[in-house]
Amino acid sequence: QVTYLGKVSTTGMQFLSGCTEKPVIELWKKHTLAREDIYPANALLEIRPFQVWLHHLDLKGEATVHMDTFQVARIAYCTADHDVSPNIFAWVYREINDDLSYQMDCHAVECESKLEAKKLAHAMMEAFKKTFHSMKSDGRIHRNSSSEEVSHEFESDDG
Where are the annotated segments for Disordered (predicted)? Predict the structure, then answer.
């Protein structure tokens, strides 16, 4: 269980260590100003190969019908251990708009501990590896781009 802090659009095409710091600070400030920590866990984050599910919880801690789904192949970057709080896990996601343009959004969740945030970062990396391996064997990723180059680009930075 996590506290979903929200999302904020981010710019840039190169996602390197530290690229989520600014968006996370913005989301953290909104969260602390709203004093939403009265009900800390408001979501359940489930990371699987191909998809990540963010189940929203009601005030009783039960899953609601509302769920956000993220395709692992569209996650450009993920990381744990932010300066503002070591308990935050964040990921950059390529959202495709109705007109087929896209935007990069940074999503963040607060975990119960630094260890939980790191576990999510490792789970995301494993999900990416499995997704990438499957897409490569299905022929959806062509061999002309080296797998080492592509997998390095999507590495998790867990501090």
Answer: 138-159
